[in-house]
Design brief:
three-stranded mixed sheet, 10 strands, Rossmann fold, binds NADP nicotinamide-adenine-dinucleotide phosphate, alpha/beta
Length: about 270
């Protein structure tokens, strides 16, 4: 797998921290040329300095993926710098909470524009380069895309829409571009991770208690293998796989678990 990534040009959106940065480090260790991205220039510079100090061949582009003009600039900067693109990992995303009756249009616009449209916008501008390289588009989704999670419906909707997008692309661009859809389960967060509140503002995400979390490095490994093996769809973590099976054979259990999690919602975000 290491040889496969050598000299490949890989763009990872939302890679100034978290899963994106861990993936940048891993694929950089494998010899890929990594394009990192984020909105905050200082945060992106800090990630760039860290990755370069650890031997990664890195290029940084500040861009907000919810803005089509930024996505166009991101892809055109890659084209100018490298003349090619082999892999686009659509990782930029935000967490969000809010009951349906309390979530404002601002909350919905932010979560959908970043999580859904961010992926669609970036991919749109990257397709011509990816067709030339017969490369890969990776879509980082979530277990929340498999059900409507009460108290997190905006996030669920934003990720569930990506399933339809990925499935359609897997047919439309078959034999031209590989599209891999990855349902990520609960993963250890950076301490700086934020969550969008129902009113459209952000707060720091509380530490997750009592959950078996995947490490960011494990998720990065799985992303690498989906690209290498050109897999269409993967569900990560034991809990994620368990949810997948229960949903198929005993959906009533999932309904009960969702009801319980909604009961805990007010305590969780008090
Ligand atoms: N962590 C989990 O448990 C988990 C579970 C399932 C799925 N996921 C998915 O995995 C992905 C990464 O999650 P994470 O936990 O690593 O996130 P994170 O720690 O919050 O990092 C998000 C990254 O995305 C960037 N970003 C956010 N909005 C952006 C935008 N509009 N344009 C460009 N960059 C943007 C952030 O930098 P700036 O703020 O500077 O832009 C940051 O670098 C997300 O798609 C998330 O939904 C995560």
């Amino acid at each position: 797998m290491k040889d496969f990534f050598k000299d490949k040009v890989v763009c990872i959106t939302g890679s100034s921290q978290g899963i994106g940065k861990a993936t940048a480090q891993l694929l950089g260790d494998y010899g890929a040329k990594i394009v990192i991205n984020g909105r905050n220039p200082e945060k992106l510079q800090a990630a760039y300095d860290e990755l370069v100090s650890k031997g990664v061949n890195c290029f940084q582009v500040v861009a907000d993926v919810s803005k089509p003009e930024d996505c166009e600039s991101l892809i055109s900067a890659i084209s100018k710098e490298f003349g090619r693109l082999d892999v686009l990992i659509n990782n930029a995303g935000i967490a969000s909470h809010g009951k349906i009756e309390e979530s404002t249009p601002e909350n919905w616009a932010s979560v959908v524009n970043i999580n859904t449209m961010g992926t669609i916008n970036t991919t749109y501008f990257a397709i011509p380069l990816l067709k030339q390289s017969k490369g890969s588009v990776i879509i980082i989704s979530s277990m929340a895309a498999k059900v409507g999670v009460p108290g997190h419906s905006g996030y669920s909707v934003s990720k569930m829409a990506l399933t339809a997008y990925a499935k359609a692309m897997q047919v439309e661009l078959e034999n031209q571009i590989h599209c891999g859809l990855i349902y990520v389960g609960f993963t250890a967060n950076e301490t700086e991770k934020t969550i969008l509140k129902p009113d459209g503002s952000y707060e720091k995400l509380k530490e997750r208690q009592g959950l078996k979390l995947a490490s960011r490095e494990d998720v990065a490994q799985k992303i690498a293998s989906v690209i290498y093996l050109r897999k269409k769809e993967v569900t990560l973590t034991f809990l994620g796989k368990l949810q997948h099976v229960i949903l198929k054979f005993a959906p009533g259990i999932v309904y009960k678990l969702l009801k319980k999690s909604f009961k805990d919602y007010d305590d969780m975000y008090a």
